[in-house]
Amino acid sequence: MSTAAPESEDGVPTRSDRSPWNWLLLVPIVVALLAPLYNGVEPMLFGWPRFYWLQLAFIALGVVTTALVYRMTRRRPQQRGTAVRGRED
Questions:
Q1: Separation between Cα atoms, residue 55 and residue 35, nearest integer Å
Q2: How many CA atoms lie within 13 A of 89 on its CB side?
Q3: Rounded to two decimals, what is the model's pTM?
Q4: Cα(29)–Cα(46) distance, integer angstroms
Q5: Contact 44, 82 (CB under 8 A)
Q6: Which residues pair with 50 in a beta bridge?
Q7: Going along 1-89, which residue ranges are E strands?
Q8: CB-hemisphere CA count at 13 Å for 51?
Q9: What is the pLDDT of residues 18-50, one digit of tens each?
Q10: pLDDT above 70 covers what percent of the chain?
């Protein structure tokens, strides 16, 4: 089974955004929409009620998730080189 990206007729790899890693981007959205997480003041963190520090935690979760998906779905250096050479010809 080949791991190379499929190529179009002119030899340039076609881009596919259909990676299963993209489903991971739903995690920060769904977690932030879970209203029962916000129901209460305790536990306090550095004097902040739960609602406020959870919002900051959700931002961090979104950044980490986005970085992970980017790293797992980006093109490999050899695929980028093929795409650039294909455009120059």
A1: 12
A2: 9
A3: 0.65
A4: 25
A5: no
A6: none
A7: none
A8: 5
A9: 888 899 999 999 999 999 988 888 888 889 898
A10: 66
